[in-house]
């Protein structure tokens, strides 16, 4: 039994969290990263309070958990049906009770973030003698875990090509399926294929910004912040490399499409703008008057422009990593000194102009080394 | 590779050459995928001076197409249609037998299905020149027939083709105007 648990943890639970690292990081950041550390607990108590007192709010939360559970179930069905996972069906020879235990364990493990949060909701509800609400949340979560367990049991033991659950979940997922469009291709790639790298960059960025805005919030040092913010830019330079590499290998065919260079540059800028939104939101929420809002917005725009400049570097050096890192280092030094001048708007205009000129010059002459 | 002043009229051209002679590089240059020195023009449009209009006229299907695994066939078709504009070869999509898979991600496609998708994409819009790099690779017998009929039909409508293939076409369906021979790092025309 221990060996089976170990395998299931590896092929289902660990894989689930790796594949969904970007999504989970986004949710975590939305609920925990945006709020000042000192106000985090009172913020969540107010959220839970609102949930316990408003039936509409409670219904919305229950619906969100249902969608998350459907996401978990879709992951299970896809994994089981994958060609290299046919060995999973051998679980069907175990006694039914043993199978149920394993499937409930797996279901609860991937559903764990929702379970942990609901534990606090139940605790607060009991403290405030709201026993019906506490029971409702507890029963609902037991049903969610049971639903995942039942689906696993059904899929493995019935071994049909398409299960009823798959049909329902496919129908639901097709409703929520969004056609990315050209502007969504780059972010789609990072969130699908490079989500772990993306999550690491974001954790690093928020950590850097936390040091300036939260830990040293009362003694905000603009010079120190300038260095930390440049490190945030350097971390994002890795994502720029992934994106250009992706566009020029997997999307190389797009060069045969009548798309002018400025449309490609605009797509890069749009993607960078989206990627840097968490940093922008974090700085705005945790600023507390340390920096003027215009400076924060100028910093955000300058980072987008600098990432476009890095994109142009990659086109110029034929995606050579060594040359690229050298140019990123030079840019780091250059921006460090430009920051010292305090001419933020001019810095933005200068970097953006250089980025556009370099992008236009190198885009059509690019050939991967 | 060095090609001096080569001009070809409308028709179907079969590029011949040994492995590594530069057939794919030539097609990629014409398609605008890789840079080159000099100029290439189709109709009155030069790739260096009027790139967007040129690329509306020239379509390309790769020998071994690869697409981002997270995109569906439909997303790729929508992408091509939004840029190439013009006609969509709906009957070709249907006849190739891949219509029902268009909502699936390309990561689930077999090599044959990827090839068929790339060929359908190459017929989108209003091209006057379609470049097909080894179009018969990975295709089943029925799909080969469908492709040959499409080439003949489009050619009658005024579309030219440059094809590289190590496999033979059905001469009754496709009559090549000229063979283009790639050897000694240059291109020579060989009248049939």
Give structural attributes:
heterodimer; A: 369 residues; mainly alpha; B: 192 residues; alpha/beta; Rossmann fold; two-stranded antiparallel ribbon; 6 helices
What this model shows, in words?
Chain A has 369 residues and is mostly helical. Chain A has two domains: 2-176, no CATH class; 182-363, no CATH class. Helices cover 79% and strands 0% of the residues of chain A. Chain A has 16 helices and no strands. In chain A, helix 13 runs antiparallel to helix 14 (293-316). The longest helix of chain A is centred in the middle third of the chain and has 28 residues, at 131-158. In chain A, 29% of the residues are buried. By secondary structure, chain B is α/β, with parallel strands linked by helices. Chain B has one domain (12-191): 3-Layer(aba) Sandwich (Rossmann fold). Chain B is 32% helix and 18% strand. Chain B has a six-stranded mixed beta sheet, sandwiched between helices. A two-stranded antiparallel ribbon of chain B has the order 2-3. Chain B is globular, with a radius of gyration of 16 Å. In chain B, a hairpin with a 2-residue loop joins strand 7 (178-183) and strand 8 (186-191). The interface between A and B is medium-sized, with 27 and 32 residues.
In a nutshell, what does this entry contain?
The complex is a heterodimer of chains A (369) and B (192). Chain A has 369 residues and is mostly helical.
List the helices and strands and how they pair.
The complex is a heterodimer of chains A (369) and B (192).
Chain A: H1 2-19, H2 21-33, H3 40-53, H4 55-81, H5 96-110, H6 112-127, H7 131-158, H8 164-176, H9 185-193, H10 195-215, H11 222-249, H12 261-275, H13 277-286, H14 293-316, H15 321-341, H16 344-363
Chain B: E1 12-16, H1 23-31, E2 41-42, E3 45-46, H2 51-57, E4 58-61, H3 73-84, H4 90-95, H5 111-122, E5 129-133, H6 141-156, E6 160-164, E7 178-183, E8 186-191
Parallel strand pairs in B: 1-6, 1-7, 4-5, 5-6
Antiparallel strand pairs in B: 2-3, 7-8
């Amino acid at each position: 039994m221990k060996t089976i648990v170990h395998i299931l943890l590896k092929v289902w639970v660990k894989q689930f969290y790796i594949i969904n690292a970007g999504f989970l990081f986004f949710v975590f950041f939305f609920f925990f990263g945006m709020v000042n550390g000192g106000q985090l607990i009172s913020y969540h108590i107010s959220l839970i309070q609102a949930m316990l007192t408003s039936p509409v709010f409670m219904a919305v939360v229950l619906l969100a958990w249902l969608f998350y559970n459907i996401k978990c179930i879709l992951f299970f069905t896809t994994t089981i049906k994958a060609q290299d996972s046919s060995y999973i069906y051998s679980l069907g020879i175990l006694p039914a009770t043993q199978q149920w235990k394993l499937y409930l364990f797996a279901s609860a493990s991937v559903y764990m973030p929702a379970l942990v949060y609901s534990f606090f909701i139940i605790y607060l509800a009991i403290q405030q003698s709201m026993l019906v609400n506490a029971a409702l949340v507890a029963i609902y979560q037991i049903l969610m875990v049971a639903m995942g367990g039942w689906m696993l049991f059904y899929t493995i033991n019935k071994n049909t090509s398409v299960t009823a659950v798959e049909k329902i979940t496919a129908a639901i997922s097709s409703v929520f399926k969004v056609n990315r469009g050209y502007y969504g291709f780059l972010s789609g790639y990072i969130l699908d294929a490079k989500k772990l790298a993306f999550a690491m960059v974001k954790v690093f960025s928020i950590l850097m910004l936390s040091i300036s805005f939260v830990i040293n919030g009362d003694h905000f040092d603009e010079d120190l912040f300038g260095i930390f913010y440049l490190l945030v830019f350097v971390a994002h330079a890795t994502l720029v490399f992934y994106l250009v590499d992706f566009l020029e290998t997997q999307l190389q065919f797009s060069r045969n499409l009548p798309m002018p260079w400025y449309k490609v540059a605009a797509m890069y800028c749009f993607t960078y703008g989206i990627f840097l939104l968490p940093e922008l939101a974090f700085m705005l929420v945790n600023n507390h008057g340390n920096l003027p809002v215009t400076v924060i917005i100028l910093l955000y725009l300058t980072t987008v422009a600098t990432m476009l400049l890095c994109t142009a570097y990659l086109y110029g050096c034929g995606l050579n990593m060594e040359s690229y890192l050298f140019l990123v280092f030079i840019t780091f030094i250059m921006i460090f000194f430009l920051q010292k001048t305090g001419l933020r708007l001019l810095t933005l205009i200068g970097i953006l102009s250089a980025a556009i000129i370099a992008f236009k010059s190198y885009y059509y002459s690019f050939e991967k080394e | 590779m060095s090609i001096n002043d080569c001009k070809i009229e409308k028709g179907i051209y079969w590029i011949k050459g040994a492995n590594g002679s530069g057939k794919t590089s030539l097609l990629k240059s014409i398609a605008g995928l890789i840079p080159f020195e000099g100029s290439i023009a189709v109709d009155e449009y030069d790739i260096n001076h009027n790139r967007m209009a040129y690329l509306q006229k020239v379509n390309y299907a790769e020998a071994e197409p690869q697409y981002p695994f997270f995109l569906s066939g439909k997303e790729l078709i929508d992408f091509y249609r939004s840029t190439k504009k013009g006609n969509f070869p709906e009957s070709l999509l249907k006849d190739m037998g891949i219509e029902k898979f268009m909502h699936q991600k390309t990561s689930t496609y077999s090599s044959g299905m990827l090839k068929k998708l790339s060929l359908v994409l190459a017929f989108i819009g209003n091209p006057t020149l379609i470049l097909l790099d080894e179009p018969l690779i990975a295709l089943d017998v029925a799909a080969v027939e469908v492709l040959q009929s499409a080439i003949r039909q489009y050619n009658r409508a005024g579309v030219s083709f440059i094809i590289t293939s190590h496999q033979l076409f059905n001469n009754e369906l496709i009559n090549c105007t000229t063979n283009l021979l790639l050897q000694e790092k240059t291109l020579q025309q060989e009248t049939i």
